[in-house]
Structures are given as C-alpha cells and as structure tokens.
Amino acid sequence: MPNYKRALKLVPQPAPSATSKPRPKARAPKAPKLPPPTITKEDFLRWETATEDTIDFKKIYVDMAGGDLPAGVALSQIVYWHLPSKKGDSKMRVSKAGHEWIAKRRAEWWTECRLKEKRLDRALVILSKRSLKAKAHPSQPSVDLIEKRSFKFNGEPTVHVRIKWPEFLASLQHHLSLLALTEGNLEIDEKGKTNLPIGKKRIHLLRNKLIPQKVNSTNKDSASKNTKKTTTSQASLDVVDQELTLRLIEAGVAPYRAKQLTADHAPEMLRRLQFLPHIPNVQNAGGLLAARPSDPWSEPTSLKKAGAAKRQATKRQADEAAAAKKKLDAENARIAEEQQNDQLDAWIKNLPADEFEELEKEATDKLKRLAHAGVVGAGALAAARRNVARKWLNLPTEDLNDD
Question: Looking at residue 130, what DSSP letter applies?
C-alpha cells in the first residue's frame, strides 16, 4: 500500500510570495493594572489593628486533619459553631436524627473561611472519611472526626455536619500529647528509625520492641511462640509511649530504664523533658532525668522568667493595640465632628434673614453669659451659632467650655 503522507511531503510546496505578510500571533489579554494606592502604611497598620476580619484558627486542627490545611480550616470553623455563644446558648439551630447539626451552603462557607467548593467538599470528605486518604503516619491515626449527612434545609438539599465528640476528643488528646512531647515533628518509620536532626545520635530500635508487629495468618504458631519469650517491658506500646521512650533514650537514658520510666512516670518525664533545656550546666542529662522519678521537678527560674516575659510582651501588645484603636476612634470622631460643623455652617448660611437674626440673637445671649463666667475662647461665636442650630435640629449640643 503506497505511503500517501510521504508522497505529499515530496510534492514541492509553493514558496511564500514577497508581498505576503506573516499572520500575527494571538496575544493573551493583559491583566488590568491596579490603580496607585491612596492609603498609607500607617492607615494599613491602623486597619490591621482594628479590623475584625479574622477567624479563630488553631494549628492543632491541621494535625488532627492529617496535615491537610483546608481540612484544618474547615474543622476550626465547625468547632466554632459548636462552641456556646457569649450568653452560653448553643449556636446551632438544626436538630435532625437526635443530634444538632450545622447547615450551611457552599457560599456561606466561602464567606466565613474562604474555602471554595471543591476544597470544601474534599475537606469534609477528609474529616468524615479519613480512611479514604492515603495511609498516614502512625502518629496520625485514622478517625472520623465529623459526621456528614444531607438533609433538606429551607426546602433544598443541604449538607449537614456535626462533630463526633468521642472521636474528636480522643484525637485532640492524642495530638496534644504529641505536642507536649516532641515540640516538633518526630517521626518513626516502620524500621524504628527517627528523624532526629543531622549530627545527633540516630536510634535504631528493634521492631518487636517498640513497633507493633503485623501477624499474618500463615505464621500464627511461630508468632505465639515468640510472644511467650517476650517480657512485659518489651510489649507493644502506643505511639505516644514510643516517642516518649525514644526521647528519653536520645537524652541518654538506658533503653530498659526509659521504657520503665515511660510506663510508670510518663507525666513527670514529659515535665522533665520540657524543663531540661532550661537547666544550666547539665553534665549527665540521662542520669538527671532518671533520678528519683517520684519527686516532681519544680519549674526552672529561667522558664518562669521566659513565661513572665512572654506574658508581659502579650500584655504590652494588647495595650498598644488598645491605644492605637483609641487613637483611631478619636481621629474618626474628630473627622466626623468637622464634617458636621461644615454642614451646620452651610445650613446656617442658607437660613432666611429673620431666622438668622433670631439664631444670632440667641447665640449672642449665650455668648454673653459665657463671657461673664470667663470661659469664652477663640471661635466662640461660631460655636455658639452651631450649638443653637443643633438645638433647633434636635441634635446633641456641645459643651462650649472647651472652645
């Protein structure tokens, strides 16, 4: 069969004429330029201090959502609607199937926390069906934090969500323990390796000591024989105990002693690991951590000072924000007063002659009384006129003693 495509390539093509012009390429439309700003940096700082365009967001909700930021934002907003109001009443008004629910359309989610439709749908799937995600790290167990169902709301099918409190509280407690323990992201792989920083001692632990084993159905007999040989100190620990044990070993505590301290004195070990960096001139950190575990450590002085300094800095920032807001409110009040004075002056100027004479006489009489009391200042006549005008218009009058 002849190759027609090759034959067409061999046919000489007519040369482009000298008068023919190349076809211009289509250009993408240019993005519109923003106009030059009319506000200053000081205006921005005042707005940033006084604005209420914020949401209360805690980073731990991202951890509970498996590290997914949109899911963490959605969980934070769901928690907000489950919290009681300032009066102690419930914010949720929808009751279905024996539970209270949050019923919101996608546009409302965007208004509240800037989640678009696809990201919102994906976030709710992550929070309600964590098993659909890829397998997470063992320190992030797969749990369903919320329940998502579709009911009719105002005559239209709407997604309703609610927190599953037992699962939510268990996950919160788990991640709070991790934060108190690691103060970072300590990871353990399947071989028992940790992601300690380069230059520090890396710990390789046997899988059957600290990492739970998966027992296949084919070797149940051999597994049962091995379990008889293992002692209680080598039993599988949960993830929090594993990481606490690893932290103690990394600090210099012997492995068997670290497991014993984790089993018997876990809260005190957490406190000691938190206080240890603030103790000066530590020669043997492992021995110090393991010594007399029944005697609780007191908070180091440097940590107390750091906490006091942090509280003072927070208070100072709050005071500065309150002062800036007060200054901004005073500036806005001054501008509003100047605008009202200009409007009153224009209204007085447009009065008929007889009404203006009456207003002028009343203002002059008031001014004479103030002059007799010795409290008349510059611009008192104009202020007296505006005060009379306010009285006629049933507006709040000013105290002329400050003029």
Answer: G
SS3 category, 193: strand
**CA 64 and chain centroid, separation:** 14
- Strands 94-96 and 146-153 come out as unpaired
Q: Is the dihedral of CA 247, 253, 259, 264 positive or negative?
A: negative
State phi, psi for 377 to the nearest 5 degrees. -120, -170
122: number of Cβ within 10 Å: 17
Nearest to 102 by CA among 54, 56, 148, 144: 148
Q: What is the identity of the amino acid at 10?
A: L
Rounded to whole angstroms, what are the CA distances from 353 to 349, 356, 357, 390?
A: 10, 5, 6, 18
DSSP state of 23: P
Angstrom distance (rounded) from CA 37 to CA 304: 46
- Kindly provide the residue ranges of all beta strands, DSSP E only, lying in 129-250, ordered along the sequence: 146-153, 156-163
| Whole-Å CA distances, 168 to 94, 224, 247 | 21, 35, 27
CB 361 within 8 A of CB 335: no
Digit-coded pLDDT (tens) for 200-238: 333 333 333 333 333 344 444 544 544 444 433 333 346
Which phi and psi (to 5°) does residue 159 adopt?
A: -75, 125
The answer to whether 226 and 208 are in contact (CB under 8 A) is yes
Element (H, E) at 44: helix 41-50
Residue with tokens 């009065």: 351
Burial of residue 96 (number of CB atoms within 10 Å: 0-12, 13-18, 19+): middle
pLDDT category at 10 given cuts 50, 70, 90 is low
Q: Give Cα separations from 269 to 251, 254, 276, 296, 380 (angstroms).
A: 12, 14, 10, 9, 74
